[in-house]
Amino acid sequence: MAKKRKTFTDEFKQDAVQFLTNHPEMTVIECAETLGVGRSTLERWRADFNRSGLSAVTAHNNDKEEKDLLKENVRLQRELRDSQEALKILKKAISILGN
């Protein structure tokens, strides 16, 4: 059975690199074990941060977050439209039954 791949937030990645930087007495392997990530993953995050700051690590996640926000926006607009339509129907019903 295939293992499910872990995903980490940008904040976690940044904190992991910061942890590695703040603990020079620990090896990369020790830091990785402490954080629960692979050694090569932690080294790649460090290289990405050193190379171009957050931009290399966050580019993919920002695209995903933007798509998620757009989907949520569409869902909320649909929900608002449906609620407004239901409110119109209720107002008509009240005016009919009120007379």
TrEMBL record:
Transmembrane annotation, as ranges: none
Keyword Coiled coil assigned: yes
Protein name: Transposase IS3
Keyword Protein transport (UniProt): no
Biological processes per GO annotation: DNA transposition
Source species: Faecalibaculum rodentium
Keywords: Coiled coil
Stretches of the chain forming a coiled coil according to its record: 66-93
Gene Ontology MF terms in the entry: DNA binding; transposase activity
